TrEMBL record:
Coiled coil: none annotated. Pfam families: DNA_pol3_delta2. PANTHER family: DNA POLYMERASE III SUBUNIT DELTA, REPLICATION FACTOR C / DNA POLYMERASE III GAMMA-TAU SUBUNIT. Keywords: Nucleotidyltransferase, Transferase. Residues 21-60 are annotated as: Disordered. Its EC number is 2.7.7.7. GO terms for biological process: DNA-templated DNA replication. It is an enzyme of class 2 (transferase). This is DNA polymerase-3 subunit delta. The keyword Transferase applies. It comes from Herbiconiux flava. Residues 34-43 have a biased composition (Basic and acidic residues).
Length: 420
């Protein structure tokens, strides 16, 4: 097993990074004098190569793009392991183990818990990138959420990419190239990921998590091939129950009153989902922080150390805010998949086009028969509007209420047509 073994559905991208990592190993296998000469050539090649360079050559800056759940960060860390491991990413040596734990001395990671990445965070990262590697061939810097940088923050990063240190490799992750400044895009080699197939994700769940075939296939389909969400749906009964309640609630909206109550309940579901994700992580972080500060379990935190614990609590509160937003977005994604299924049935899509919500196919067909396709499309537009409003900092409760009022019209029509 290597660092590439648990990546799924991205064979073309894996080959690009595998070849680049292997090419970076070659100068180290030469005799000392020849190694120095080729090292100088490699240095020049690294600084000159951009996105238009040869597919198997190494370069100093990379951009991994792809839809949520496609495995951008997983691929970034696999590549980091391949660069920092003396065996090219064996997956079992101390270097690979340290990268997996994000504790390797030559690995720097920026994965924000905020809505945006602050300029101070990037300045600190750029400063650390100037140091030479301590134990490996490279110093690797991974930015998981490069799309969350504002323009002036991106310009700080740009200076580091324009004049990169000899042995520093930047790996940026973002949903699409358009999320970054053109000046940043021109200085990185971009590798695009595709949405993994349902079969690929289901296979991964069976192999990695020991999930049975039926559960794995349903989780992969209902997550729409989002690997992280598929894992939660396959291994967490509460996550599956919250998703089922979300769809049932949307289909039961009939009036403005239903919409108001439904919006409140959706926020509760999103909050419970966010809490389930962050609660265990928060407890582990607090316990680790107390151990590192020398505080025994159950012992009061000394006054001199309370500032550090307060900083940790503030970070966790920010993460909880972002997790709630992510929970709301997952709800909207699930609702969009529901109305996507309804409109497919209404338009007579061939059987080869699978429904995302196959488990409630009978109810989907019942609603599809009772509503006009224009109402279904209006419902989908309302879901998209809710997502845009929430992104623009409109109160989530108001955004969800407005969305559900539109969904209520479709619900009333369907109810009238199926009633005797």
């Amino acid at each position: 097993m290597t660092v590439w073994s648990d990546l799924t559905g991205q064979s073309a991208a894996i080959e690009v990074f595998r070849a680049a990592a292997e090419s970076s190993l070659r100068p180290r296998t030469q005799p000392q004098g020849e190694q120095h000469e080729q090292g100088e050539q490699h240095k020049q090649g690294v600084q000159a190569t951009d996105a238009r360079g040869p597919a198997d050559s190494m370069t100093h800056s990379w951009l991994i793009t792809g839809p949520p759940g496609s495995g951008r960060s997983n691929l970034a860390y696999a590549f980091a392991s391949a660069l920092l491991c003396r065996f090219g990413g064996c997956g079992v040596c101390p270097d690979c183990t340290q990268v997996a734990a994000r504790t390797h001395p030559d690995l720097a990671v920026l994965a924000t818990e905020r809505v945006i990445i602050s300029i101070d965070e990037v300045r600190k990262l750029v400063s650390s990138s100037q140091f030479s590697p301590s134990v490996a061939r490279y110093r690797v810097v991974v930015i998981e959420d490069a799309d969350r940088m504002q323009e002036r923050t991106s310009n700080v990063l740009l200076k580091a990419l324009e004049e990169p240190p000899e042995r520093t490799v930047w790996i940026l992750c973002a949903p699409s190239e358009a999320d970054l400044l053109p000046t940043i895009r021109s200085r990185v080699r971009s590798v695009r990921l595709r949405v993994p197939s349902t079969d690929d994700v289901a296979s991964l769940l069976q192999r990695r998590d020991g999930v049975d075939a039926v559960t794995a296939e349903r989780a992969a389909r209902e997550s729409q091939s989002h690997i992280g969400m598929a894992h939660r749906l396959a291994t967490n009964d509460d996550a599956r129950a919250r998703r089922a309640e979300t769809l049932d609630l949307a289909l039961g909206i009939r009036s403005v009153g239903d919409a108001v109550r439904g919006a409140a309940r959706l926020l509760e579901i999103a909050g419970a989902d966010a809490q389930a994700i962050t609660e265990e992580r928060d407890a582990e972080e607090r316990a680790h922080a107390l151990r590192s500060l020398g505080v025994e379990p159950g012992q009061a935190v000394p006054p001199a150390l309370r500032g550090q614990m307060k900083a940790l609590e503030d970070d966790q509160k920010r993460r909880a805010t972002r997790s709630l937003r992510d929970g709301i977005d997952r709800i909207l994604t699930d609702l969009l998949s529901l109305y996507r299924d309804i409109v497919l049935v209404q338009l007579g899509a061939p059987e080869s086009v699978e429904l995302v919500n196959e488990a409630i196919a009978d109810r989907v067909r019942e609603v599809a028969a009772g509503v006009d396709p224009t109402q279904t499309l209006a419902a989908m537009d309302a879901i998209a509007d809710a997502r845009r409003r929430i992104a623009a900092n409109v109160a989530p409760a108001l955004s969800l209420e407005a969305m559900l009022i539109t969904l209520a019209e479709a619900g009333r029509t369907a109810a009238r047509k199926v009633s005797p």
